[in-house]
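Re: the multi-chain job from yesterday

Posting the exact lines I submitted so nobody has to dig through the queue logs.
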Amino acid sequence: MEMKGAAHQSQRGKEPAYGLASALGWFSIGLGVAQITMPGRLARLVGVNDRSTTRLIMRMMGVREITSGIGLLTGRPAPWLWSRVGGDALDLSLLGSAMASGAGNLARTGSAVAAVAGVGAADVYAAVRAQRVNGQPQGWRDVRRSVTIRRPVEVVFSRARDLENLPSFMEHLESVVTTDERHSYWRVSAPGGTSVEWTAEIVLERPNEEIAWRSAPGSDIEHEGRILFSPAPADRGTEVRVELRYRAPAGSLGVIVARLFGEEPDQQVRDDLRAMKQVLETGETVRSDASLGGRFLQRPGQPPTH
Amino acid sequence: MKATCWHGKQKVRVDDVPEPSILNSRDAIVRVTSTAICGSDLHLYNGFVPGVKSGDIMGHEFMGEVVEVGKDIANLSIGDRVVVPFPIACGNCTPCVNGFSSLCENSNPNAWMAEKMWGHSPCGIFGYSHLLGGYAGGQAEYVRVPFADVGPLKVPEGMTDDQALFLTDVFPTGYMGAELCDIKPGDTVAVWGAGPVGQFAIVSAYLLGAERVIAIDRIPFRLRIARDRAGAETLNYEEVDVLEALREMTAGRGPDACIDAVGMEAHGHGAQYAYDRTKQAMRMQTDRPTALRQAILACRNGGTISVMGVYGGFIDKFPMGAVVNRSLTIRAGQCHVHRYMQPLLQHIQNGDVDPTFIITHKLPLDQAPSAYDTFLHKEDDCLKVVLQT
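And the result, structure tokens for all chains:
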């Protein structure tokens, strides 16, 4: 698994799908501007009668085109490409009904239909390609978090390696049971009081430097990652870096829901690293009256009833 | 137990709430004997600080008697009289070890909130919004004190509450304000704000060797105290043009250092003030930097502006050009109280400073709501209110 910082991020822009998406983006913007500024001319160009309703529709299409165009020029063109495909279908049906009405210039409309169909094919191709990033199907999410802990590397490593005791200070972990040197069974809290479970296998362990793992087939969540340990500069302790990727169950909607509940893996990793720092530096995770209920269930800042 | 709780803008109430208990093994429970209302409490009172919830107990300046200790506390015994610093510090993280207790990395359980707002989180603070931990505050009969082996300082026999109380916040804050100025012999220091922190900044500036200290405010009785009790020269900004006056007083140089002991609810005049208030009301600017702007313009070239006034969010129309073109240094921070408590206790015991001079009102805890009002409006020559349980 290769995740090397900046190199990983810049890969995306170089995918062929993105070049095509950009080209389509500029095309959309150009077309949209034309549709808004010269609706009559464009109507005549595609062989449709130039009337005020046609011009209005043309202008609305122009706004839609510009919006899609801008969307396509962002780093995440996939949904915009699919919306272009939808727009093309709409255009085809409008042109089709223009042809069926018999009015206007059939030859020109016919050419326009062919042109839209051609662009539509390009849109579909680009949309499907954009679904795959770095050859991986989209749906994988990356998490990258780090913390500096003012204890020696050996102390931090051995605490992190003691998997069965992690739930004692990492709130999101319900339980971890090791079955052998490399395998462990995890249960982690998820939105709505549910939990997700998986078996993890340690695939690489370099003492005081790295632990890499992946989930076994059949786990609720597919993921893999590693945690790196290195001495921080000038006796500041240990730098701990977590890099993991997981395939979001229920796609993007699942991620948004998880975030709302404070259970998104990114937030969980951040909170758990902070907890590890507190435990290693002060002995316990610190508690306050308001935060006793957890991240989003802030109580008033007064002692709880006994 | 009785506790002063926040219930909305300019609405505090003394409620009956549960007593605290030990939650972490390094906790102690303190029975409060004296507690004060801070100028920064007024920012909470006036609704300028986000993340405050109805029912939050206010207050971060308190002292009292230890009544219970967690199992890992060895330095305190039941019955010890202690004064508790307002920042909560673990004592083990890098900033704590290096003397920057208000930057403690472990004491804010809501660090994620503060990170969103400020990039990183500072320490947790008693009674100062959920952003800074959501800890119950000290304007109550009892308080849970985390990391009691780091914060609380034992009060020597014979020292009264009045003498010790201000070691929690205002005296160290004023002192740090002066210390950040890097005062050299012959220096003139100008202090904006003659409230409690300003008064201690004046006193501290002299302790640190300033030649002249000039206090700037508009409330006559505060200027009088600054003159008569703290020894400053004074300027009333409603009567004189402060920039002109400072230039005159320093023969054209400007003060060598300027201390902002006013903060985000600065009061001003004219178009600039109207602009600030409008933007604040429209939530386009969260803080009003009137005093800070003036301090920057007044300061001599190459001088230092030390900011102890509390700001929460963002300010507008900041004279960055002045800062860059004139080699100004801006230093700021929530006071790292822990490192000042012992030395300042010495000053009090030696008679160098009598901190009781700022107390103008002493009231029972029950009267907290009217006390807040009096303090806010500076009625009745109010400078500092001490509440007693």
